[in-house]
Amino acid sequence: MFEALTIAGWGDMDFNAHMRNTAYLDKAVDVRMQFFAANQFPISEFTRLRIGPVVMRDDVEYFREVHLMEPLRVVLKLVGMSEDGSRFQVRNEFFRGDWQLAARITSTGGWFDLTQRKLIAPPDNLLRTFRKLGEGYEVRVLPSSIKESAVGNTMDVT
């Protein structure tokens, strides 16, 4: 688990003076990147390795309104991962200043090789780092994003 503090800023508001749905998604990604940076995986390391996380699905649930300048505590957890780490599911929970759950985002993704333009299993040090998010929690086993090709020993993305 990883926690970060933020606020609902001016640019995060919608017409009804509530935090807009895409602002939650933006903040969820920011917290994920903060986790990696805090664990020796800054953006520069992803750039050097030519890989990056890619989200294929976001499920958003709303529970309480969040208003302008309200503090938010954002919790990030790993809730699912394939054995090879090629597919993952993370959950961001947003708690308001009164510590009530405001929203939950569950994101399913994988690791994208920017040179080969396909999903891959992450390098061992990144996999170990990512597994830290699941410590102390039950992490569901997901199917791999990679499967053996019918021709030779090459790997293809499903």
Describe the structure.
This protein is an alpha+beta fold and 158 residues long. It has a single domain (2-157), classed as Thiol Ester Dehydrase, Chain A (Roll), CATH 3.10.129.10. It contains three helices and nine strands. The protein has helices at 21-38, 43-49, 124-131; strands at 2-7, 51-62, 71-82, 87-95, 101-113, 118-120, 140-142, 146-148, 155-157. Strands 1, 2, 3, 4, 5, 6 and 7 form a seven-stranded mixed beta sheet that branches. A two-stranded antiparallel ribbon has the order 8-9. The longest helix has 18 residues, at 21-38. 25% of the residues are buried. The model is unreliable at 149-158 (pLDDT under 50).
Summarize the structure.
This protein is an alpha+beta fold and 158 residues long. It is built from three helices and nine strands.
List the helices and strands and how they pair.
Layout: E1 2-7, H1 21-38, H2 43-49, E2 51-62, E3 71-82, E4 87-95, E5 101-113, E6 118-120, H3 124-131, E7 140-142, E8 146-148, E9 155-157
Parallel strand pairs: 3-7
Antiparallel strand pairs: 1-3, 2-5, 3-4, 4-5, 5-6, 8-9
What profile does the largest beta sheet have?
7 strands, mixed
Mean pLDDT: 91
Segments where pLDDT lies below 50 for 5+ residues?
A: 149-158
Classify the fold: give the CATH topology.
Thiol Ester Dehydrase, Chain A
Strand content: 35-45%
Query: How would the global form be characterised?
Result: elongated
- Quickly name the level 1 CATH class: Alpha Beta
- What is the chains' assembly state? single chain
Tally of alpha and pi helices: 3
* Rg: 17 Å
Order of helices and strands: EHHEEEEEHEEE
Provide the CATH superfamily: Hotdog Thioesterase
Structural class: alpha+beta
Percent helix among the residues?
10-25%
Number of strands: 9
